[in-house]
Design a protein that fits this description.
This protein has 301 residues and is α+β, with helices and mostly antiparallel strands. It folds into 3 domains: 2-138, 2-Layer Sandwich (Beta-Lactamase), CATH 3.30.450.40; 141-227, Beta-Lactamase (2-Layer Sandwich); 236-299, Arc Repressor Mutant, subunit A. Helix content is 41%, strand content 21%. The chain has 14 helices and 10 strands. A hairpin with a 5-residue loop joins strand 6 and strand 7. The longest helix is centred in the middle third of the chain and has 18 residues, at 119-136. The two termini are 49 Å apart.
Length: 301
Amino acid sequence: MLDELSVVFPFDAGVVCALSPGATTSDPLIARSYPAHFVDYLASPEWYAEAIEPFGIPRTGWPVCERDLPVDPMSLRGVAEYGRPAGLLEGLLSALLNSEGEHVGFLMLSWSSAKPPPDRAFAVIGHVSTMLANTVDPLRPARALAAAMDDDSSAVSIGPDGRVLALRGYLADQVAGDPETARRIAQDLLGEGQQSDALVMPGPDGRWLSYRAARYRDHLLILTVREAEDLHGLTQRELEVLSALSEGRSNAEIAARLSVSTRTVRAHVEHIFAKLGVRTRSAAVKLSVAEGLRLASARTG
């Protein structure tokens, strides 16, 4: 990316950072020739507060030069403490706005000459900024995944900073509006190194909801939710027993967890087999994993 831009205008240092919508910390994806401590500063909320938000850069998406800022560039910490000591006398900053108009990152180029870049550099960067934004947008793959889901499914993303954002579906706003529960469900589903899993939970209005979580790129989690259509007639107690079976619990362990007798557990297991149309514990577990017929409460016990 930077190699192609250097053909348009030769620069001495450059960085491309991704930014989740609404966040003030960024993730440097590509950095060239900037000091490491400067790159760390560019990823911080301080840089966003100092050089991004005050000048309305996220709202324009058009590159801005240091000399065109409405303040003395030397009044900015990023310029005075990092840029000038590194011999960088001029710079260009462009917000990256995706196709939905969301600010998802920024591009910054710096050079050792005090001369501004030619007009064609501004034009090229301005016209390709949306393409660059769609490339670095942390949520772009998640949105594509959500768009391909069934119409009755909803999806939210959970960023590495814990932010929960609605992606699609009528349940998404409800889930995103309760971020603590969304994070807890995702953590409950995805253990160490686990890529995806599913479970069912009773919703606030008594409906059963099916949740599935998956790890995605850039430490992003996708949590999908839909109304559970087919629980095979299983009761909540039977789902608790089935969840425990999926964890490899013995009848005695399940009885102790549920404060019932082993005879009661055996009866529940027989009913589960009949409702699922299976004959063995392994077959019941295999079906429960495939269809996400496990309860969060049993998994955390």
